[in-house]
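Entry type: protein chain
Record version: 2
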Amino acid sequence: MSKIIKPYKDSALGKKDQVATMFNNISKNYDDLNRVISFGIDISWRKKVVQIVSKNNPQQILDIATGTGDLALMMSTLAPEKIIGLDISEGMLSVGKEKISKAQLNDKIEMVVGDSEDIRYADNTFDAITVSFGVRNFANLDKGLGEIRRVLKPGGILVILETSNPTKFPFKQGYKFYTSFILPVIGKLFSKDKIAYSYLSESANFFPFGEAFNNILKKNGFINTTHTPVTFGVATIYSASK
């Protein structure tokens, strides 16, 4: 990553603490605002992630940067033994716990406060690990990916859904305009944290994507890496194994 993007540029806190604070601030209206900003398309992206994960018939699943648990809830349809939803934001997890209780899935999904760069599980624990819109928030990307590889079982699958930048006209120009100008305005209008959505758009514009991110996965020891752009390249689904 060529540039370290932090939410609050005037804060003395490190990126990790800033990201936790930001998501705590926006947790209450994150789901509704996220649907508006993505026009609801993010739901179909997550469904594609679930389809990929299902091919391994995983019994132990770790969903990193689980947020309010949307992907964890979707993966419960795969009938695994256990899904761990891990996130550094207690505010996001609190919203997620309410959704899980409402779905009567407390015995299946456990929401845990935790750090992706210091995962408190043993080596070779999980059959599948997912991260949706979370890796670009890692303070140390290599360290986070190294931890993911450590707790993933040999033969296990890692599936990452992350923002990317369209490369073809006119989608490239339209996406740049939307993320730079429209998205921050929507965030400021509907979120009490006026900076959060500016950070989310800026971090999306600077994060490596496509083959560049595939190379980062390979550098950190993953194999069978693939990437599939979705919706004209505004997001990409990565798959890798150990």
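Comment: The longest strand covers residues 152-163.
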